[in-house]
Amino acid sequence: MDGFLLLLWVMRLVFLALLYLVLARVMRSLLRDLRAAAREPTTSLGRLIVLESPSGEPATGLSFDLDAITTLGRDVNNAIVVEDPFASSEHAVLTFRGRSWYVEDTSSTNGTYLNGRRIEDVAAMGYGDEMSIGQVRLRLERARTT
Amino acid sequence: MTVAPDIGARRAPLAQSARAGRRRRIQPRARWGEARLLLLVAVTLLVGSISLGATLTGAFVPYDARDLAIYLGALLVAHLAQVLAGRRSDQILLPVMGMLGGISLLLMQRLPQGLVTMNLGATELGLGEVQLLWLVLAIALATVVGVAVRSDRWLRRYKYTWAALGIGLLLLAFVLGTDIGGSRLSVRIGPFSGQPSELLKVILVVFLAGYLSENRSLLIEQDTRVGPLRLPPLPYLAPMVAMWAIALGIVVIQRDLGAALLFFAVFLALVYAATGRVSLVVIGLVLFLAGSALMAALFGHVRARIDVWLDPFGDPLGAGYQIVQSLHAFARGGLLGVGLGNGLPLVGGRIPIPEVHTDFPLAALGEELGLVGMVAILALYLVIVQRGLRIGAAAADDFRAILATGLALVIGVQAFIIAAGNLSVLPLTGVTLPLISYGGSSLLANALVVGLLLALSDKGVEPPPPPGRRGWLSRLPGRGR
Q1: Ranges of each domain in chain B
Q2: Does B151 touch chain A (CB under 8 A)?
């Protein structure tokens, strides 16, 4: 009987130990996942994806990593050069301030549109939102992680 | 268990119609991380079952080999279905869910089988077998949702429809609900009864994700100053107040303190996650405290809960009976527990803790597995929360980020509320311990959460759809746009 009890207690302790082994294994994969994410350089704050661009400059499907201030327009000194007949040379500025993205229309001739609506001055922009300059449509997305 | 054929049937028409290219891409993809973890979970559960069997029958054999085999088989099928579907989704959620469900199965097998019975044809199923049935269905649901959901358009597009459906469910519970212990929680339709509030929590998160992602940029802007607090423009606080009113309404009409607490906590957490503004959370907490004080002053059943929480030993055989027995159970368990199946048996013909299988499984587990085992179980919930937050952080847009965060928090916060209630850290409110408590609606709702997290975590998921017009907030006057 004593042997039985001893074995039973060993069994119970083994169950607890295995429970922690499962936990340790899970934790290890979590750590590996986090380390892999940390290794990836995520210096950019977000991405701007070109959805449509008839002129091919910028090319459709291109993804731009964004800094805190990104200028858009036809002039070659802009961070993102938009070669479109309806774009002004200094068309719009995309800024990350505090907790949110803002798109500012720098008095362009034909205006900047956010989700199909023309913006006046500045408008807050969320991830997933679409802006258009002339015929070029761009979508703001989170920086790529993992 | 026919998960795999089901999925094939669901997938086929989709692949044939206009997506011939996608069909080629559905290739099996090995998930070794998940397979290894599942194997370990299976070994752990087998040892647990043998330990339970040895305690109850005196022989070193699994307590109920057939039920355990069915359960592990269901996990295996779920794993294989995901491998065959070839989706690159999270590999940790299923093993963690399997571990919690397995612990639930071991617990329900050991509790008196007469607590719940269900007649299936000629055979009568006891508590353990009914729970096994629900667990298998839950695993199937999580897998089907995780594999079949490729687009979240149907979730984000119809958020007001979902909200209406949720309110409909609440009303349904109120009109058709049956009273159990003074609370109108469950609806009985034919042989099935369910608790709408379990499904409601998922719907709430979907609605909030849609609402907050649409109006996030407006809520972030700071306009009004009230003393030291900087608030968003006042009309935009309306949803906050409405949510508060709904939560209080649930308490008043349904007497469901736990659901109200859960909804409000998740709501505040999501508002914070979406806006990053402490002031909104502070306002919410102040509203919450004011509402609680009001409820305690007006309603006897709320005050009774608080009195028991403050002094459970004041009326140990009456109002405080459950809590006192629960605390004793934890104390008997000590550090390492008394062993599976070795908890205190019936006392005077009834189980020591009333509602042990729904509201107090943690007390039973605390007794049998001790502090050490309980900490491991709570850590498993933390893992689910961590996965949800990671999936949210990696999401492509706000809707998915807030949705994943909210889904994970629903499970985490609910586990916290009931664990704290069992330990008398918070006033006891009757919610289930996710994925462990007995109950079909609870298990299925939490499986739905896990399934949605699996679907959201897929790296090859469809990109977010283009946004429509902004939410109704932007149409309010005075925005100067």
Answers
A1: 26-457
A2: no
